[in-house]
């Protein structure tokens, strides 16, 4: 199973933070928006992240755990920011 096969909420539960239930993206049905192709924009995900109370923690989590996809309004590839 790849990260694109998992729901975003399934990825969030892998964290040890007890705060993920407050994430603005929690329950979002638009899974593809969180794992865009390089040619796709990620404005939808960025807008949701902008109002999230966990923005800083999300970016930290993505960098520390080597995540790919949109986390905290930035796009990551194996824990490195590739687009902001």
Automatic annotation (TrEMBL):
<dbReference type="Pfam" id="PF02467">
    <property type="entry name" value="Whib"/>
</dbReference>
<dbReference type="InterPro" id="IPR034768">
    <property type="entry name" value="4FE4S_WBL"/>
</dbReference>
<keyword id="KW-1015">Disulfide bond</keyword>
<keyword id="KW-0408">Iron</keyword>
<protein>
    <recommendedName>
        <fullName>4Fe-4S Wbl-type domain-containing protein</fullName>
    </recommendedName>
</protein>
<keyword id="KW-0479">Metal-binding</keyword>
<comment type="similarity">
    <text>Belongs to the WhiB family.</text>
</comment>
<keyword id="KW-0411">Iron-sulfur</keyword>
<feature type="domain" description="4Fe-4S Wbl-type">
    <location>
        <begin position="24"/>
        <end position="81"/>
    </location>
</feature>
<dbReference type="InterPro" id="IPR003482">
    <property type="entry name" value="Whib"/>
</dbReference>
<keyword id="KW-0805">Transcription regulation</keyword>
<keyword id="KW-0238">DNA-binding</keyword>
<keyword id="KW-0804">Transcription</keyword>
<keyword id="KW-0004">4Fe-4S</keyword>
């Amino acid at each position: 199973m790849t990260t694109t096969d998992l729901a975003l909420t399934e990825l969030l539960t892998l964290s040890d933070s007890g705060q993920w239930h407050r994430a603005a993206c929690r329950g979002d049905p638009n899974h593809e928006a969180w794992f865009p192709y390089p040619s796709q924009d990620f404005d939808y995900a960025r807008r949701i992240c902008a109002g999230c109370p966990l923005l800083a923690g999300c970016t930290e989590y993505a960098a520390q755990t080597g995540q790919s996809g949109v986390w905290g309004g930035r796009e990551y590839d194996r824990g490195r920011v590739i687009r902001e």
